[in-house]
Design goal:
eleven-stranded mixed sheet; about 500 residues; globular; homodimer; about 35% helix; Translation Initiation Factor IF3; alpha+beta; 3 domains; BirA Bifunctional Protein, domain 2; Rossmann fold
Chain lengths: ~500, ~500
């Protein structure tokens, strides 16, 4: 490493960008707004995928794959949907290049123009519902519970690694149901799956709630979401689950013969997704000025062992001990990397694994060999201790990892608690929203899009959600003074 | 099922298309040449992915992700590469739609034209090597062993589900090395990984060999391949591994400081890939006129249990037994589906699982309850037997699955043996190549592209590979009569 990271307190944004690059998570590519996810970053994403995929399967979903391209006319079939996505989509117009007449490279062949332009999918509702039309005839074909892991493209003008990129990776679930209630239950279930994943794997506390109409997915009747709070006091939408009503069924004429008497009814739909944006959330939720802090459950490897030696003989002796530890740890499901490279010094390695967020570092030197001990450092608290290599050692490391997972979660929870406020006047509201610290502001709102928009214009704060656990409380709108029956959650957001 | 499949002997091509659709593997989408991979088909692809991914990791590779889009100028940097791909690529020219002035849907916004067109990746050498330039400075950064799971697009004019589609899913490995020999070793290693996968998981015998110059990957110095023989006597290229020499390093100026004295040298490269085309190979290698035949190692589930009952009481009793069997099988790693749906009759279910290639079917009826037995049917040989539900039952099923895996492989091997021929005259050659039976023809070739091309023109046969186990044998070219030192393998191919 050349030098330390920028400090969060000095330039949070720069800290984030530098951390993503220096920890080898991702980098910008030659194509505007598109990122390269580097092997270390991708290893974290793979861990996320594996956990989520199992959760989807445990709730009865199967994976499938639908085309990358959407005919322009399909995108247009649901009016609000096309309005939401038309302004930022990549359009394929030709299917061939040809040699330039000057012999200088290639140009688009004007004779190879598509009859109908194709849109690179920004999301797949339209192409999937056009397919479901053929898959669904009767109530026997329902529910249809499908998920897709895919890349999507939204032509964002201001991009940031993981948080907002022109191309990103995600999963999108698309389900079809015979009744409204069943579809709503599915929507809520998947929001809960996401919340479970965020809390118990990412160690990231989230609020569960419903979006206001103006923040809804284009084409949905209701959008459920999970919202997290980053260390700069800004909110980040970490996952959404949409109740689509019969909107896409009507747009693509998807009907089923019902169980009762075979009458034809429109199908009820949902869609839900999380993306590589979660990588950004994970990084910002826990990391510090020394680098990444990863919850053990999503770390590419749990433990790194670094030998400290002055001679080949010492290294050999240490390696024997290290390999014994590795074998013991692997047996109980703890993944270990042994970094015995001679091209780098221990100090360099310490800094490197600190930057990359390896939860536990074990250092073994000649003194340790004499004493039958090792030095164990936990990344989250940057604390070191000496542990004896006895029969309980591996179990001790495993418990330490559990403790780290829990400690990270508790710390984030405390941060959120200390950054959640109630505001009863607009002055109060503004002073919190505009403060350095930021945070979630619980305030009364009159329920109108006009007020929501004005608050956004004046403060940049948006309604993150109407929380599911909203308490009934008579009050008056923090902006208009009109009556309200409960507080909603405001924040500036990514 | 409405009616039986077409017979292979009558219309192989129709048999394949119908099988893919009726077994719920894939279907054509609304976008020309792009397929929808249905949940049952995708479940097989997921099994393939999981095995291959582990094989790649076991050989030291990490996954990463690179952009979908390639700037046109990048594609042009390697002369042969662009020549190979320019004629069939999807080109993004605009990044926005706008409302039509007539208010009828959306049109491409002419004000949102890209300065430089973007190509939807047909393969990622160019975008990856442009990235490697920043990742590689010194011999310490090598080897770089990266793989990507992704979708790619090649604008094929004549498409067929799985075998040739405009968009397909694949993995592409891209490695960088300090020496020529190391890169060649990597190329050969990955061909061997593919062959191992084909033989031991797909139960599909493959020839290993090297492509002739005219069949090489655009931009490679050598292409290694595995070639399989389908049941209609046509060959199918199932995987390729390319030694790229320094071609892409030179095109993108990727150099490293060598270990010896720090002199700057060009990096040596490889790339290798297999795709959803393997699904087509798997289907065609083993299936019969009754439907799919799947090797147990890649089947979405190994065993289906079908209860045969006339009353709810009988079903309840059978379910107790079925659940006991499921628990025992799961313990030893055998996956089971229990189909107790009352909406379908046993006969319908038998035909359905036969069509879908479930390796083992267990039927349990009232008689079985009395006798403590079940009826076990193996899909590959369509043979039934009665098995006693004793302490060895689960183990017996596990052994049956091993036997099925082996039997399928042996059958395919025998088919290939009986369809491998030597031809010493062009008359002989033509009579084999043009026969109904088809097959691999081992023949002498003079080593020239001219002869290769003429044979292709006259017979549609291509040189599938120069086999790695080629025997030294003096002979004369089957077409030109010129001298040759060993036989190469010809066939008509997919």
């Amino acid at each position: 490493m050349s030098k330390g990271l920028p400090k969060r307190s000095e330039d949070y944004s720069l800290w984030y960008n530098e951390l993503v690059k220096r920890a080898d998570l991702a980098e910008n590519s030659a194509v505007r707004g598109c990122m390269v996810i580097k092997p270390y970053g991708y290893a974290i994403w793979e861990k996320m995928q594996a956990v989520l995929d199992q959760m989807f399967k445990d709730t009865g979903h199967s994976n499938a794959y639908f085309p990358l391209f959407i005919p322009k006319s399909y995108l247009s079939k649901e009016a609000k949907h096309v309005e939401g996505f038309a302004k930022e989509c990549a359009v394929v117009t030709h299917y061939r290049l040809k040699n330039d007449e000057n012999g200088k490279g290639v140009v688009v062949d004007p004779d190879a123009k598509l009859e109908e332009e194709l849109i690179v999918r920004p999301t797949s509702e339209t192409v999937i519902w056009s397919t479901y039309k053929n898959w669904i005839q009767s109530y026997r074909d329902l529910p249809l519970l499908v998920n897709q892991w895919a890349n999507v493209v939204r032509w964002e003008m201001r991009t940031r690694l993981f948080l907002r990129t022109a191309e990103f990776l995600w999963q999108e679930g698309h389900t079809a149901h015979a009744s409204k209630q069943e579809a709503i239950d599915e929507t809520v279930q998947m929001m809960n799956v996401y919340a479970d994943f965020a809390e118990n794997y990412m160690a990231m506390p989230v609020l569960k709630g419903v979006k206001t109409e103006s923040e809804r997915f284009a084409g949905a009747e209701d959008t459920y979401c999970i919202e997290a709070l980053m260390q700069d006091g800004k909110a980040l939408q970490a996952g959404t689950s949409h109740f689509l009503g019969q909107n896409f069924a009507k747009a693509f004429d998807v009907k089923f013969a019902n169980k009762e008497g075979g009458a034809m009814e429109y199908v009820w739909g949902t869609s839900w997704g999380v993306s590589t944006r979660l990588m950004g959330a994970l990084i910002m939720a826990h990391s510090d000025d020394n680098g990444l802090v990863l919850p053990p459950k999503l770390a590419p490897f749990h433990v790194v062992i670094v030998p400290i030696f002055k001679s080949d003989e010492q290294l050999e002796e240490i390696s024997v001990v290290a390999k014994g530890i590795m074998a013991d740890l692997k047996k109980i499901g703890v993944s270990v990397k042994y970094d015995d490279r001679t091209t780098y010094k221990p100090g360099w390695k310490f800094a490197e694994y600190e930057l990359k967020g390896t939860p536990v570092r074990i250092a073994i030197g000649p003194k340790d060999l004499e004493n039958g001990t090792v030095e164990v450092a936990r990344r989250d608290l940057l604390e070191k201790s000496i542990m004896t290599l006895d029969a309980n050692f591996a179990q001790g490391i495993s418990e330490l990892l559990d403790n780290i997972q829990d400690t990270i979660h508790q710390k984030a929870l405390k941060y959120r608690e200390s950054h959640s406020f109630k505001a009863d006047t607009f002055e109060e509201f503004k002073s919190i929203i505009n403060s350095e610290e930021g945070g979630f502001v619980y305030a009364h709102w009159d329920g109108t899009a006009e007020t929501e928009e004005k608050i956004k214009e004046e403060t940049k704060a948006t309604i993150r959600c109407i929380p599911l656990d909203q308490e009934a409380e008579e009050g008056s709108c923090v902006y208009s003074g009109k009556p309200s029956k409960g507080r909603v959650v405001f924040a500036k957001a990514y």
